[in-house]
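Researcher: Here's a chain I'd like modeled. Treat it as a single chain, no partners, no ligands.
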Amino acid sequence: MVDVNENPFDGTDAIFERKQPLKKDTFTPDTIFHRDEEIEFYINALQDVIVGHDPNNVFVYGPTGVGKTAVTKWVRDKLEEKAEAEDIPLTVVGPINCRNYRSAYALVNTLVNEFRDPENQLPESGYSTDSVFEFLYEEIEAVGGNVLIILDEIDNIPADARNDFLYELPRAEANENTPITDAKVGLIGISNDLKFVDVLEPKVKSTLGEREIKFGPYDATELRDILGYYADIAFREDVLGEDVVPLAAAFSAQERGDVRQGLRILEKAGEYARMEGADGVTEAHTRRATDTIETDELLDYFEHDLSSQQALTYLATTLALIEPKHEASTKRIYNLYSSIAESSGRRVKSERKIYEFLDQLSMQGLVRSAERNLGRKGGRKYIYEVTDDATDIINAALQSSYSDAVPSNVNGILEHYLEDEATEFEAPDTTDDEQQNLWQFT
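Model: Modeled as a single isolated chain. Structure tokens:
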């Protein structure tokens, strides 16, 4: 029973000294571990700025949480420091996270405003896309000298604008139709999608990938060093059990070599210890954190990383997968997407848009597809699957703001799916209409 007259908040924290270091995106470390080779490649690519040559375009890629952005920021700071000491004209914009922009217009608008004073900001609407590009070129020419633009999660640039944007911007000073004559433009693109370059047009590949730097996943030993560094800053002295960091490192290495995931495990384990009023963080707290981390990460996708239409498409793909037929075709995904969008009062987009949403989910590594040849029937179709456990995705969706889009009988269907997976049961084929009748939308 809660005493409503007693304040439940505690003014002290026996577990955490500072939680910010565990929020990797908002904390800049003083030390970068196990990225000496990548830093060397980066320095070599940007050395031309210091010695008077045109800036190179650099493409940095690798899975999430492997140090791409942290290294980029460190190299950026050192480059600016050297340029200032040598009196070399240099303007660096970014990193700008492309995940926050759903159109080329919005992204270029933001880039323009990065150059402008606060009292002269470009409004969010009112101009054509060509006009905001022209404004950007004018701002680049106005600052002159070397201009480096850093775009993080560049794979999130909308598909319909990707090739034009990534081709035109790095070549702006060479284009006689732009006002750029004196400025020298370089683009640094950071991508979580290792296959991102493969889908670009050849001319864009050539322009964007003048210098490519690949970041691979960390192994368990490297993660132990990195997580230990952050843990020493974040936790109070002597509260971490000796197995906590090694266990978090081993789990993260086994999954995908992701520092961000390891930090989430440490934070979650610390919170469990604090909730219990424990004197320290134990192996049991850490194992409990690893058991829930997958759902937590997927919940972040639903709440922060995906647009509402992407989230509905992701949910529809998962529902299509767990149906008795176990085949998530594009048509089936669209039928389910339409039903869950309509039942939850959200706008239903066209079937053509579903292809775009599935492509975007694929680039984020959440779904993958296989092409199936229909043989004598002619034509081809694509079958999709999710890359995370269906149970984790459903649980995350039920905890998210999209819970109203989840069919009320999802747990029953999921239970049968898991039984079929365990027994390799092959259900009879059903039509799309028959499959539709399986679900209960409220």
